Structure formats: C-alpha cells, structure tokens
Structure prediction request, 77 residues.
Amino acid sequence: MIEGRDFTVKLGTTAPGIDSYIVRYRDYCTIIISDQLSPEGRLEAYEHEVWHMENGDLDRDRDPELMEIRAHKKPPA
Prediction:
C-alpha cells in the first residue's frame, strides 16, 4: 500500500512500446499493464508504476513524457 494513494491494477491493451501507464482521477489511480507482457514483464511494469507513485511523480508533472525523462535521468558520472 502506498501512503495516501488508493489504486487498482488492470491488464489491458496498450499502445506499441508502452508496457504500462497510470490513469489518475483525483487521488485514485488505476495502473494499466499490457496484457502482452510475460509474467516477469508484468511484475517489472507494476514495480515501475508503483515507483512513480512512491516517488511523488504524479504530484509533480502533468506531462507523462517529461515525467519519464525526469524520473529516469541518470546523474552525471
């Protein structure tokens, strides 16, 4: 459970190249995971979306592409 966030998880059809995404309505979220992924891929996709929720990404950025870029930007070596 993520503090202060209610959510469900559903399998569904996603666009090519999209393993998972989050639909948010107010404080409630639905994680959609591609039904084309393997069981291991589904778990990875779930963990990826939960990481975004725990990291507060849904509260910071409105543009999903910017959120992904910022969330996965590697620090300089």
Strands lie at 6-12, 20-25, 28-34.
